Amino acid sequence: MRCSTIKFDVAMIHEERTETISNHDALEFINQTIADYNGEGEYGFSNRPMPKNLKKVITNTKSYLKNSSQPTSSLSKMRNAQYRELFQRWRLAKYGARLETIEQLSIVNVAPRTRSALEAIIEEAESRFTNEELDDILEIIIDVCVRGRILGRDEATMEEEAEAREQELQDALEKLELGKKAAQEAAKKKAQPGEVMDDIAWSQTEEDDGMEDVQEHPK
């Protein structure tokens, strides 16, 4: 879903289509707006009624998002903690950078439970991901969005795990580079005896040429 930045004090669009949000975000925004007009929210609009056009849009949108077929029908199905968990697990599994933003939001909105439903969301899924990767992505979605399972790790722990994996990769690359240099040094040392013999042969040839010159031009 695309949204616009709105200035509440003048009730007009300030920056059109500047953000991309999920259905979950939209429902939270709607609930917050309703609370504001009821005098229970942060802005507290209780001193004025909700405009009819806004009320109609909010009512229709909330009715759609609260439909039992939608993952947002119960906010407990996609709490903020779960929301972060989904993206963190994608990132740790190296899928986050390979999934387009719109694909990630569509997955959050639909919460697919089958491979066919997932592949309908991810463009050219079979050419971009292996079967095992698609199954893994689907398992993460079901685990977080359907089962509501949080692994119990805070953001700092998740970051540490990601950094540890990156460090392991860096260490492996350094070892590979060191092995490559060692192989080059070994090959260089192996070639040196031949080079030394060539130098000796060249020096001997120069000495022989010098002796011939002496014999041809005696004092």
Automatic annotation (TrEMBL):
GO CC term (a single one): RNA polymerase III complex
Keywords for the protein's UniProt record, in alphabetical order: DNA-directed RNA polymerase, Nucleus, Transcription
The keyword Transcription appears for this protein: yes
Transcription is among the record's keywords: yes
TM stretches of this protein: none
Subcellular localization(s) per the UniProt record: Nucleus
Main location: nucleus
Listed Pfam families: RNA_pol_Rpb4
Family: Belongs to the eukaryotic RPC9 RNA polymerase subunit family.
Name of the protein: DNA-directed RNA polymerase III subunit RPC9
Organismal lineage: Eukaryota, Fungi, Dikarya, Ascomycota, Pezizomycotina
